[in-house]
Amino acid sequence: MDAKFNNSNVDALLKIAAAKLNMKPDVLRKQLEAGKFDAALKNMNSRDAARFKQVMKNPSMVKDMMSGEQAREMYKKITGNDPG
Length: 84
Fold this sequence. Notes:
6 helices, mainly alpha, globular
């Protein structure tokens, strides 16, 4: 794991994501670590769930999304560093 992206930053991100998905952060963490997204997908609307599944099947799409300005700003807020 990148030194800039430490456990407290991951915990903060998990807390935000879990709140958006109406689930507990520890449940989301366990699912993500296991590569399972069932509970998260269940709590998303169908359009977002379909988009998420599409993104997870396409690594280049993930890379494109993470290189976008919104992703850079979110990373900067969470870590306090520019992913630059």
